[in-house]
Amino acid sequence: MKEIDKYMTVSEAAHRWGISQDTIKNKLKPSVKYTWAKTEKMLEDGLLKYYQKPGAQRKEWIITTEAMELWFGKKE
C-alpha cells in the first residue's frame, strides 16, 4: 500500500469499509459522548485530522486506515 492510500476523506472511508458516511460522522461529533473520548485520543495520536475554515461551522476530516481499523476492524 502506498503511503498516501493510508489517508482518506469520510466519503472514501465509508466506501472502502462498506458503511454509511453517517456512521463515520457520528464518531466525529463531540456531542456523541460515548465515542468522543476515543476520537479525541485519535486526534492527539495523529490518526485523525480536520480543517475548519475561520468562521465556518463545518470541519473537513482526514482519516487514517489505522483509525478506521480501530473503529470498525480490518477491511476485508
Give a written overview of the molecule.
By secondary structure, the protein is α+β, with helices and mostly antiparallel strands. It has a single domain, classed as Orthogonal Bundle (Arc Repressor Mutant, subunit A). 47% of the residues lie in helices and 14% in strands. The chain is built from four helices and three strands. The chain has helices spanning 10-17, 21-27, 33-45, 65-72; strands at residues 7-8, 48-51, 60-64. The protein has a three-stranded antiparallel β-sheet. Strand 2 (48-51) and strand 3 (60-64) form a beta hairpin. The relative contact order is 0.21. The mean pLDDT is 93.
In short:
With 76 residues, the protein is an alpha+beta fold.
| Mean pLDDT figure | 93
Total individual domains: 1
- Alpha carbon gap, first and last residue: 15 Å
The poorly predicted ranges are none
Give the name of the CATH architecture: Orthogonal Bundle
The arrangement of helices and strands along the chain is EHHHEEH
CATH topology: Arc Repressor Mutant, subunit A
Strand line-up in the sheet with most strands: 1-3-2
- The fraction of residues assigned to DSSP E strands is 5-15%
**What is Rg?**
12 Å
Shape: globular
Task: Compile the SSE list and pairings.
Elements: E1 7-8, H1 10-17, H2 21-27, H3 33-45, E2 48-51, E3 60-64, H4 65-72
Antiparallel strand pairs: 1-3, 2-3
Primary descriptors:
alpha+beta; Arc Repressor Mutant, subunit A; 3-stranded antiparallel beta sheet; globular; 76 residues
